Amino acid sequence: MCSANFSDSFKVFLANVTAFTEPRSFKDAMEFDVWRKAMGFEITALEDSGTWDLVDLPPGKRAIGCKWVFKLKFNSDGTVERHKARLVALGNRQEEGVDYDETFAPVIKMTTVRTFLNVAASRNWALHQMDVHNAFLHGTLDEEVYMKPPPGFLSSGSTKVCRLKKSLYGLKQVPRCWFGTLQTALLDYGFRQSTSDYSLFSLVRGDSEIYVLVYVDDLLFGGNDTALLSAFKSYLSSQFHMKDLGTPRYFLGIEMARNAEGFFLCQRKYCLDIISEAGLLGCRPTDIPLAPNHRLAHSVDAPYDNPYQYRRIVGKLIYLTLTHPELSYSVHILSQFMQKPTVAHWNAALKVLRYLKGTPGQGILYKAGTDLVLTGYCDADYNACPLTRRSLTGFVFFLDGSPISWKTKKQDTVSLSTAEVEYRSMSWTHKLWFQFYFSRCVEYKIMDYVSLRVETDLLIDTNLANACVITYISP
């Protein structure tokens, strides 16, 4: 994809995001003064907020470890906003019932993110992105948790450990603590929480409206009233230590560009990182991600000598499908061989990366000034799995021509005919879920889609399956 259509500021942003690298270990970070200062700032912030007390480890107790995670934060113009060092507790060493109890905390669904951006582009809403500084530190721990001192900030001969009084990144229960704190703040301001996606909040005052999407400590929000948006930003800053990132350019690893035509989403940096990790930056691109009639399920090749690398690449490809619907089928196939991949499976994964080499900047465009008509397509592949004889279902939903939801999945049962396969495919594509989602949004004014047709179009290429549906719903 050519970058000539991008604005100069977005070109600078892409260049900076691609060029800068982040340390992967404490040893690497200690070689740079900016990262040493970042770690010092993090420790100071933790101590000022009273996150822990240095105590002797009580008999019978066990202290979990911790590590440093380093991340670059960018401004909307592409410049480096700050070098961030995060101290993370090794929550994988915690024991249920001893160190933690409840852990679940909701995050925004990607379908909701894409739908929100589509509506924002259609209605020309102003969008803002904010980040909560040390968000997890706002929660208070009820459990007794001990942690080893941070690397590099306590003498090697000391036997002291940190008794955690407040939540810390990495602990299993802290996302729940933080979400409860943020939820209370939003509800107190007058927001209403969606029942179809608990990380979507709405505020409607007369003709003014604001919608907030929450993903842990990243907030994406927008609306049709700039004064109300400014007041809301001031309220957030009074409740938490906020960082105003301006116009959204980089949200959850997704690059966002906006102009008069609408929103464009892609994962160019993430895609290039995957290709670079596999050593394929100089490879020849291919036109398709997976060969037809691949027969990977019947592979008799030797086992791949580095299954961890295969799992890591496929795991990254799964996240890449957030903006690459055309990879849904290929990733579905590759993810079935995570336990014992063979050389053929690895070569198939490399073919997907070679396809990405030719399309690193491919993404999704949400157009401005659209009518927001929801249309769904579904299809099925009879007896697609040669091992279980189960068929395959795929669906995609478009909101005025732009994809917002898609998936490829095996059917739960074995079908006996192609008509049965197609009929099951239609029932599985969540048409009723979408109708419930949008009708509930209109009913509770979570998102008032004025021009959205209630009767969603669901299209399939089999007349017999269509006839079965018509017969079933006819009075």
UniProtKB/TrEMBL annotation:
Residues 51-290 form the Reverse transcriptase Ty1/copia-type domain. It holds the Pfam family RVT_2. This is Reverse transcriptase Ty1/copia-type domain-containing protein. Coiled coil: none annotated. InterPro entries: DNA/RNA_pol_sf, RVT_2.
